[in-house]
Amino acid sequence: MDTTVAFVRASSDTGNEIVVNFGLLSGREATIAEVDRLARRLCALTGEVRVHAVRTHDVSAGSESVVHQVVVEAGAVSGGFETLRAVCETWASECAEERSLDPLGG
Fold this sequence. Notes:
Elements: E1 6-11, E2 15-20, H1 22-26, H2 32-43, E3 49-59, E4 64-74, H3 80-98
Antiparallel strand pairs: 1-2, 2-4, 3-4
Helix pairs in contact: 2-3
């Protein structure tokens, strides 16, 4: 089973961005402190970074879902976006190990 939770996505605004499906690992939103920790790690690799913690609700007559993602916009870095993606993947795993929530009804 592929457990990758961070991937590079093309963006019309910034060229590329990294999307972390944070809720898949942790069952919760990323805290402000966790987002700050990720931003500091990424800033050590690239001069400037923008990190968004996003909660998306998808609702229809027959279903409802909430997705917790973290989106990273960053400048160029040696090693490319794969280097930043790997940092995000490690960060998400560490956060989930530190504190996770079980799904409702589980």
